[in-house]
Design brief:
By secondary structure, the chain is of the alpha+beta class. The protein contains 1 helix and 12 strands.
Length: about 210
């Protein structure tokens, strides 16, 4: 009786190579999926950040522009001047901060392109007049928006019943009826024009 040797147990070289090929394909597909997922996540995060940035800027203008006060600065030694002054890239006005803010009362805002950095919109803020004797006229500066390519302001005039948009609103004795703001970013992302009506535009300028 002939005894046969036991059959060898294992994989052939071809089977091993096929298995390694399949494993390599699976690893490539897995990392490709992870890369696509990471890119999608980053794109989503960037989109959310962009939307939040636009919302913050819009809310800033919505909060302060409609309540602009038609006031005169005649409490200093200089010749009285109307508090609202507007140019194409810069605007000055008086508004009130909310009660919850650290600084209360009438505040003088100056918003415009920072001359030191042309791609930044800067907000300068200080009290319109001291609330206490010998109070310091402290001015604060805050960056409102960065990476700005263009910042344009327009002012709607209703003088003599003829409505017209102007690039400048200086040396006048009243407020414009509307203010339009156009912002273009460096990445050319869509930013809708913003237009705000001034509630006290028809009121006569008050002198303090």
């Amino acid at each position: 009786m002939t005894v046969r040797p036991p059959k060898a147990v294992g994989f052939t070289l071809i089977e091993v190579m096929l298995a390694m090929t399949l494993l390599s394909i699976m690893v490539v597909l897995l990392f490709s999926s992870l890369r696509i997922g990471a890119e999608s996540w980053n794109a989503g995060e960037s989109k959310i950040a962009s939307v939040n940035e636009k919302a913050v800027v819009y809310q800033f203008f919505k909060r302060h522009l409609p309540g602009i006060r038609p006031l005169w600065d005649d409490f200093s030694e200089q010749e009285p001047s109307f508090s609202f002054q507007g140019r194409r890239e810069r605007m000055q006005f008086v508004s009130v901060l909310p009660v919850s803010a650290a600084h209360k009362g009438l505040q003088l805002f100056e918003i415009g392109i920072d001359p030191r950095d042309r791609d930044v919109i800067m907000v300068k803020l200080k009290p319109f007049y001291p609330t206490e004797e010998d109070a310091q006229w402290r001015q604060e500066e805050v960056v409102l928006l960065e990476h700005v390519r263009e910042f344009e302001l327009s002012y709607y005039s209703q003088d003599l019943g003829n409505g017209i948009w102007l690039d400048s609103w200086q040396d006048k004795e009243s407020l414009p009826a509307l203010i339009k703001i156009k912002i273009t970013l460096d990445d050319q992302s869509y930013w809708p024009e913003m237009t705000f009506a001034l509630r006290l535009a028809g009121a006569a300028g008050d002198k303090l």
